[in-house]
Amino acid sequence: MSETKVVFAAIYARTSSPNQKSNYSIEGQVNQCWSYCQQRGWVVRYVFIDECQSGGTIERPKFQLMLEKAKNNEINVIVFWKLDRFCRSLVDLVNIERMLRGYGVGLCSVTEFIDTTTPVGRFNFRNLASVAELERELIGERARLGLHALAREHKWPNPHPPLGYDKNEDGTLVINSSEAKLVRKIFSMYIREKSMAQVAFLLNREGIRTKKGGKWTARAIRDIITNNLYIGDFCVAGLKEHVEKYRILNDETFQKAQKIRRRFEKKGAKRPFMPLERKGVKIEEMIRRYNQVLRKFGISNLLDEGD
Fold first, then answer.
1. Mean pLDDT within 75-84
2. 273-285 burial string, b = 16+ CB within 10 Å, else e?
3. CA distance to 52, 53, 76, 110, 205, per residue, from 30 (Å)
4. Which residues of 64-100 are buried (b: 16+ CB within 10 A; e: fewer)?
5. Active site residues
6. How many CB atoms lie under 10 A from the CB of residue 33?
7. Is pLDDT at 137 greater than 80 in this prediction?
8. pLDDT over 70 for what percent of the chain?
9. Residue 22: its pLDDT value, please?
């Protein structure tokens, strides 16, 4: 970018969560970037803002729009307050910088003195990108350690416990008697019907809803059938321990369901046809349609619609 050429800048600002707004305010980021552009004599053409968006991915609405503007040669440089506001993944950073360089677009950090239009600036960029990646990995490691600490105390790691349980204020689980009864019913139905989709169909027909109030699906039934927590096996954040007070089912019932679930894994095993009733079509209607087609070809009814 020559000294005489007008340089059009795009300012990018981001927060990753609602709680972060006060620490890295959008207004503060934009103001510092704008002042920086004025000092360099750059004309600010666009301001792109992504609020409550993770820096671990580049799939952010305004970020993608900004890249589109860069591709269309509408800007010459992207200015941001700090590198981790722009992107946290080292791989993404390096790839994006290379792509933008191909468009003739540079990157500038206000607080870290990065300017990828110069060799030294590119060197600083790669060093700081490595630091940003390290920070992201450390955050992830701290999160995993926190989850493991909760698991050691047999606490549930999120606000939504599985069907059959409620979550105490201290994070541990307590069996919900009415939901536990439904869990046992689901296992009993599955052992009898030998079909997750059929169990979901029957539960929906009875008007029984999921823990979140939705309709049952084969996947939802599978999540219950395969959950070892119902026999007291607590498996969270890499920790596997038996917690008897979490038991809802006996081992025999649980293992019987697993045996049924795996029965098609054997070579040559055939899956049964879906019941017509579950398809939502009555037998009488099927016969009527069948005979209607036959009559078009001058063939009399082969099936009695009254049967």
1. 91
2. eeeeeeeeeeeee
3. 16, 16, 18, 10, 56
4. eebbebbeeeebbbbbbbbbbbbbbbbebbbebbeeb
5. 16
6. 26
7. no
8. 84
9. 45
